């Protein structure tokens, strides 16, 4: 956020919005972790369905 304000030449003290930079980076990091967790749950469900499908083929 500070980088954007610098590029757009907004007159403000750069250190005053450092908190928002930390919040933005933390939010991005949390979002990435959330999507990694969602992807792992999706992959586990996909593996489970594939195993069930293979088990049916073997038994039939």
UniProtKB/TrEMBL annotation:
Pfam families for this protein: YphA
Highest taxon in the source lineage: Bacteria
Transmembrane regions listed in the UniProt entry: 17-43
InterPro entries in alphabetical order: YphA_Bacsu (IPR014617)
Keywords: Membrane, Transmembrane, Transmembrane helix
Entry annotated with the keyword Transmembrane helix: yes
Protein name as it appears in the record: Uncharacterized protein
Organism: Bacillus thuringiensis subsp. tolworthi
């Amino acid at each position: 956020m500070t980088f954007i304000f610098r590029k757009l030449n907004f007159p403000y003290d750069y250190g005053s919005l450092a908190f928002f930079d930390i919040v933005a980076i933390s939010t991005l990091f949390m979002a990435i972790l959330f999507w990694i967790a969602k992807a792992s749950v999706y992959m586990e469900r996909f593996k489970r369905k594939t195993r069930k499908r293979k088990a049916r083929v073997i038994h039939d």
